[in-house]
Amino acid sequence: MMGSTLLRILVSLVLSLAIAARAYKHKSLNRSGAMMGFVVMAIHIAAGYRFGVLILVFFFTSSKLTKFGQEKKRTIDEDFKEGGQRNWIQVLANSAIATVLVVILVTITGGEDRCLDTKNSALITGLTGGVIGHYACCNGDTWSSEIGMLSKGQPRLITTFKPVKKGTNGAVTIEGLLAAAAAGFVIGLAYTLVGLLTTGCAGDVAWKQLLVVPIATAMGLCGSLIDSLLGATVQFSGYCSLRKKVVSKRAPSVTKISGMNILDNNGVNAASILLTTLLTSVACLYIF
Asked: Which spans are transmembrane here (predicted)?
């Protein structure tokens, strides 16, 4: 047991360092983002391979989608940066809650992967469900945003269904919503496949682990909808006549589209992640 734990810690350090360095080289993360990314990834992988695969699937798929169609996104996104270049605040906004949960879990389990089973441990089931929901939300929101910006469909504000310009906070498209569900599906599938190799679930408990896939799919969509609802109501969107873009800050040249200036994009992301994490945790307690 001690040997496998030490091996996992070593793997976590080497793999996280390699991924963070590569991400910095390819401009997926800036310097501060790469440093924070290394810490967060190392914690997840050291806590359990299932948790490690969740953050890695989220990171790699979101990074690829961020770079897809960059020329078009450059004309839409006010904060566009070549390659994405997420900083430490963005990394933390998309990983802080899950990092806290996996640290609690590894403290309880000693790094042993456990099945989702409330009869054995409701606490472990609830906390693990929260981690799954966290990354289903993160992946769903990212896929939805990145694919939605490239959609040929007309974005509509989620609160009024009024047609709005691309880049408006709280706007949704059919393609974006389907992408969110697909993103959640990928998270659930990755967790389940790795779990088959790392857990000793048996009987009905083993079969029930497959329910993670539809749960994560639903939470990918749900998390994206929550993010859009918050974006449309507590995050300001306006059209700048000078930059010819939708922006998130008031100015003399900006005409309001929607939302109050209460939270910025990182705040909206963190709030939607927290709500989806709690929702998934409760769902897992009832289902498993």
From this structure: 36-60, 91-111, 177-198, 210-234, 268-287
